[in-house]
Design brief:
The chain is of the alpha/beta class and 149 residues long. It is built from 2 helices and 7 strands, in the order βββββααββ. β4 and β5 form a beta hairpin. The longest helix has 22 residues.
């Protein structure tokens, strides 16, 4: 994993989302630029489809509540019908780069976490979506607070 640089993270709030809330309905679309290594975090009440490239290398996350506790649930697309080349490599890259994406989310939405510090204890689960049952898995990436810079 490369070193995290906060100045390379750009955040955009859309719809009714503000830096300090609401948590309910808050969705994140994390994308990047291969050319500049910039990370883009869009925070809105729906995923930022306009930020998704044909490479489908975005990370999507949303707040959910289980037994009254917040959880960050996310997904990445490893492959789908007609798009199965390099599935193993895509899975490995997503897994390796996920900590950087989660650091970008934690940094981009730092005002929300300052407003409600309990959110830092939320577990992060990412579903790697694949047609291949061996790659179609959900991973526990620990708590979002562990990605604080």
């Amino acid at each position: 994993m490369k070193e995290f640089h906060p100045q390379k993270v750009f955040v955009q709030y859309r719809d009714c989302m503000q830096p300090t809330g609401p948590v309910e309905g808050r969705k994140y679309t994390i994308t990047h630029s291969d050319a500049t290594a910039d990370l883009f975090v869009t925070i809105a009440d729906c995923y930022a489809e306009d930020r998704v490239s044909r490479m489908r290398d975005e990370v999507r996350l949303a707040w959910e509540f289980h037994n009254g506790k917040p959880v960050l649930m996310g997904s990445v697309l490893i492959d789908e019908r007609g798009m199965t080349e390099n599935s193993c490599m895509r899975s490995q890259i997503f897994y390796r780069e996920m900590p950087m994406a989660l650091k970008a989310l934690r940094w981009a939405d730092r005002f929300l976490f300052c407003e409600d510090p309990c959110l830092d204890s939320a577990q992060v689960w990412i579903h790697f979506i694949s047609c291949n049952p061996a790659l179609d898995k959900s991973y526990d990436f620990g708590t979002i607070g562990s990605y604080m810079c």
